[in-house]
């Protein structure tokens, strides 16, 4: 089902506004993590209850996407996105004002419900606003936001916590949400015409067809597994660098900056390659390089050679090639079901990404044994299975890019 509308080309700022929507959304999931150790004292509660502030947000974030997809097909992308960011700002402010842990947990749950909308809507808008000739270049910008935000979130959150207290992170994302909403209102057009909108009941039925469609599930699960390896790393990396390697706490943030730099480089490559090759070829290339990176991470750690270089070189290679996967993967996944309702397809892809990421992070922490090897093995398992699914999947081969993002 084609949903591309005849319209003037979107303004040059639109790709960056859409990427900012994604970045602010993802930032809200882990910005609070540096504050968790201090929440028991702040609220007179247990560390277990404090840790729920992350898991309850992720649960709401993952589940709500399954509703947002059909709603986006029924009422349009822009209207849903604008309403979600206003509600996101309000629930973030309510969380900052929490007088007890119960209030904070409720606020985090509600925050997750609304902050998850961009994970569904942004990819759809990119496909509809730019079409196959330019979408891949814009997806490189989107992929940068999706990949970098989980890495820089704890870094920003740590500084905000030290300078202003645990509430500062919530006020920060509330302000960002309002700024993004204003930019959306003034700069970003609706991408789904009224004639292409679907009845809510019909789009909800689309989930059954998607769950039985191997051509959709294979690349969707593959992309999600490769992305999930990032959360296996993020969950355990602070312990590895600070406790095992002995890196001073104030210098740990530099390792995140190195990973972010690799993402930036990977997205520059994705943007350039996206004008010359199909999304399917770019996706397979990214899957192969992430697989090689995971092997390069496991081998020295299995030999007991743990150090900054043996960690950051393969993780940087993984991060750079993940940029290729995140640029091409969503386009390719949605492309294989182009004749089906796109809202449920995007929602299911987003839920798979976050659900498998949560599982990877849990396994990385659960099997930690005082070495970095379990983390590396979880990453290799995710990447290996994901790459295998992508390499054998019957991809569409659509979306060769030829234009600039803006």
UniProtKB/TrEMBL annotation:
It is found in: Cell inner membrane; Cell membrane. One of its GO terms (biological process) is xenobiotic detoxification by transmembrane export across the plasma membrane. The chain crosses the membrane at residues 16-36, 42-67, 79-97, 109-126, 138-162, 168-188, 220-246, 252-270, 282-303, 315-338, 345-365, 371-395. The keyword Nucleotide-binding does not apply. GO terms for molecular function: xenobiotic transmembrane transporter activity. Keywords: Cell inner membrane, Cell membrane, Membrane, Transmembrane, Transmembrane helix, Transport. One of its GO terms (cellular component) is plasma membrane. It is a multi-pass membrane protein. InterPro entries: Efflux_drug-R_Bcr/CmlA (IPR004812), MFS (IPR011701), MFS_dom (IPR020846), MFS_Efflux_Transporters (IPR050189), MFS_trans_sf (IPR036259), Tet-R_TetA/multi-R_MdtG-like (IPR001958). Residues 14-398 form the Major facilitator superfamily (MFS) profile domain. PANTHER family: CHLORAMPHENICOL EFFLUX PUMP RV0191, PURINE EFFLUX PUMP PBUE. This is Bcr/CflA family efflux transporter. It comes from Halovulum marinum.
């Amino acid at each position: 089902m084609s949903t591309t509308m005849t319209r003037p080309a979107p303004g040059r700022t639109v790709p960056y506004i859409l990427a900012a929507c994604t970045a602010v959304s993802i930032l809200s999931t882990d910005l609070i993590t540096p504050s968790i150790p201090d929440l028991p004292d702040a609220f007179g509660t247990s560390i277990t209850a404090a840790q729920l502030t992350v898991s309850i947000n992720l649960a709401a974030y993952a589940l709500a996407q399954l509703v947002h997809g059909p709603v986006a097909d029924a009422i349009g992308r822009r209207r849903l996105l604008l309403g979600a960011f206003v509600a996101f700002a309000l629930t973030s402010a309510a969380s900052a004002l929490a007088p007890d842990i119960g209030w904070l947990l409720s606020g985090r749950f509600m925050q997750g419900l609304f902050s998850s909308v961009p994970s569904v809507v942004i990819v759809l808008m990119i496909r509809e606003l730019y079409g196959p000739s330019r979408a891949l270049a814009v997806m490189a910008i989107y992929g940068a936001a999706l990949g970098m935000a989980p890495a820089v979130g704890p870094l920003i959150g740590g500084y905000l916590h030290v300078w202003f207290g645990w509430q500062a992170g919530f006020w920060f994302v509330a302000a960002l949400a309002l700024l993004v909403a204003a930019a959306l209102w003034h700069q970003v057009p609706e991408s789904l015409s009224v004639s292409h909108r679907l009845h809510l009941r019909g789009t909800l039925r689309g989930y059954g067809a998607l769950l039985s469609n191997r051509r959709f599930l294979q690349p969707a699960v593959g992309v999600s597994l490769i992305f999930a390896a990032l959360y296996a790393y993020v969950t355990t990396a602070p312990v590895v660098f600070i406790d095992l390697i002995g890196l001073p706490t104030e210098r740990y943030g530099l390792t995140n900056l190195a990973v972010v730099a690799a993402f930036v480089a990977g997205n520059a490559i994705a943007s350039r390659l996206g004008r010359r090759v199909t999304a399917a070829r770019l996706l397979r290339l990214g899957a192969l390089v992430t697989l090689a990176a995971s092997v390069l991470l496991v081998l020295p750690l299995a030999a007991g050679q743990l150090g900054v270089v043996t960690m950051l070189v393969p993780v940087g290679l993984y991060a750079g090639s993940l940029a290729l996967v995140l640029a091409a993967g969503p386009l390719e996944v949605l492309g294989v079901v182009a004749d089906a309702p796109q809202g449920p397809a995007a929602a299911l892809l987003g839920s798979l990404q976050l659900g498998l990421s949560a599982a990877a992070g849990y396994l990385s922490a659960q099997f930690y044994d005082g070495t970095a090897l379990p983390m590396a093995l979880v990453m290799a398992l995710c990447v290996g299975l994901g790459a295998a699914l992508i390499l054998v999947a019957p991809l569409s081969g659509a979306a060769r890019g030829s234009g600039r993002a803006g």
